[in-house]
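Page 47, continued from p. 46.
Same chain as before, 524 aa.
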Amino acid sequence: MKIVTADQMREIERRAAEIGLPPRVLMDNAGLAVAQGIREYLTNIEGRHILVLVGPGNNGGDGLVVARHLHDWGAGVLLYLSSPRPDSDTNFQLTQQRTIPTILASQDDDLATLSSWLHSADGVVDALFGTGKVRPLEGVFRQILHQVSKVKAVRADLGIIALDLPSGLNSDSGTVDPACLAADVTITLAYPKLGLFAFPGAGKRGKLVVADIGISAALADDIPTELITADWARSVFPERPPEANKGTFGRILVAGGSINYIGAVYLACAAATRVGAGLVTLATARTLQPILAAKLTEVTYAPLTESEPGIIAAEASETLKQWLPNYNVLLLGCGLGQDPQAAECIKSTLFSSLPDPPPDLVLDADALNTLARVPQWWQKLSQDAVLTPHPGEMSRLMGLSIDEIQSNRLEVAREAATLWHKTVVLKGAYTVIAAPDGRAKINPQANPGLASAGTGDVLAGMISGLLAQGLSPFEAACCGVYLHGEAGERVREKLGDAGMIASDLLPLLPVVIKQLKEKCDDRG
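Result:
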């Protein structure tokens, strides 16, 4: 499913007009689709009181079509206009032919009628502004939204439905006006807008519903940004042929761990096995191997030379290079720490001659922190790799502040992937995955339960396991992120989002995969 900016949506609408879908038809389609979405949200529409806030532009026009359909289905509809509609507005005339109660804000002293209508309404449709509004909300618009917020604060049962976007939410950046309403559900038109997956805007949208308004998917073929869906994940998930052996599903060498971060490699290795990798070998500091072997019984081991107990030595890279020809994937960095000897091992492994063909690389945690200290490191590491930074690691890699990264996550990830010629997974709420060729996918989940130590190690192991089974770096990264998020949702359903720990995800990974393959349950 494509994700669009405001300019991209306008271009898609222009293309639609060229093939016989003019704005008038799209408005009719949009209004009907949103009305159907409201009927589903409120379940029984007949007799329900619904207030529609009508803005001055096309979003307001969509709201008028919504009002007409809801009225025809038996709802008690009320129209509150921020400003007069022109005499040529057919959709407004159709509402008046139905004698739908209507008032202009300029005729409502102290917004008394608005307040009265709000207290008796079951739902409010925010159709003031859509993708076109970028100016601050002032005057009557601010007053209307403030009044709705006041009533919502004392009437939690008042459902707020945003048409396309909550008014005051920037459709591209996700920034919000102070007056922006927090919707219970946003019914967005044709395609989800980028700002709905960026905070603080994402926190205002409520449940997201994408309404089909009759635009052909072919008109958006050139849009490079997509939402990851279950359909897509299922389409790329590797097959499991009955005649397979463990070599069929790939071999992974995981190099990581240190005296302070023993659990990181446990989580990464376990996750790789849980997504179906055929063989996982753990290369870790020699004194840590017996500790990890007591917990990781399905994994083989390559003990590494130490500079001190629990810290790998720089010359451990020679052992890694000897093992690499036997593996399809090298996962490097989980829990290695920032000891200078470990950093030298990372650089020696990555910046020397790798086997031919080289293994696929997944670089996480301390491998990324080491790269951040090497000027122009991407010119020394020519092959593709999957990098999995959280915002702090991305800050060090890009030389940007965390605020700069978080305020423009998609473009930062895309710029990095293009510059480095690597696949970049910018972790966080609505994780962004960017490919070197400009493609990007955004994960549909934002789960605070995953904001805990070790969940990134699980993700790195999952991506490595999918790479080993033959997915491309971009496919493995996107599929891994999606399954990781789905497992997190399953844990949240059982335990809530406080107290969730990384190892809770591991037993649910095969369950999520099984369900994905059996039934496409699209949470997008």
